[in-house]
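dude i think i finally got it to work??
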Amino acid sequence: MAQAGRVSPGAWGRRGAGADAAPVCAPWCWASALLWLAAAAAATGPSRRQWPVPYKRFSFRPEPDPYCQAKYTFCPTGSPIPVMKDDDVIEVFRLQAPVWEFKYGDLLGHLKIMHDAIGFRSTLTEKNYTMEWYELFQLGNCTFPHLRPEMNAPFWCNQGAACFFEGIDDIHWKENGTLVLVATISGIYYCLLQNYRH
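look at this
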């Protein structure tokens, strides 16, 4: 008689104590089955889909589908990135606040659903600037797909772009989020950022 807690030699072949119990596959049996499935999948030829989808760089912004409509204007106070002098010292700030803070306060912050931006301050001119990544068709449109009757697959309105504007909204970033100095850089390095965006 087998001791309690011990596995008898035939335990891999049967489940339960009775002779009429259903057979169970041993670990080597499962490994063989998975190996067979992998070989069968490879033998059927290359898949028509590739994952992950290779990155495709565009030299232009693709035309948005007319279905995608923005409720609010994208980057309404946007301005060109200003040129800084080489001897300027630029303070760089981390800006973070909960998504939809204007509507829900810090609620989404408790779930760590945050909106981030970068702030810059010129020590020569004492002007502040904010750079954010914005969705062109508002957050709901880019977060959730649309189901359109004329299309078989979900449809996304998820184009976005960088928005650069003068000023840092201290109250917005400090009230429920973060406004922290993280680095200082020279005007030379700042201008490299400006040249990179072109």
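Helices lie at 27-43, 101-104, 138-143, 170-176, 187-196.
im so relieved honestly
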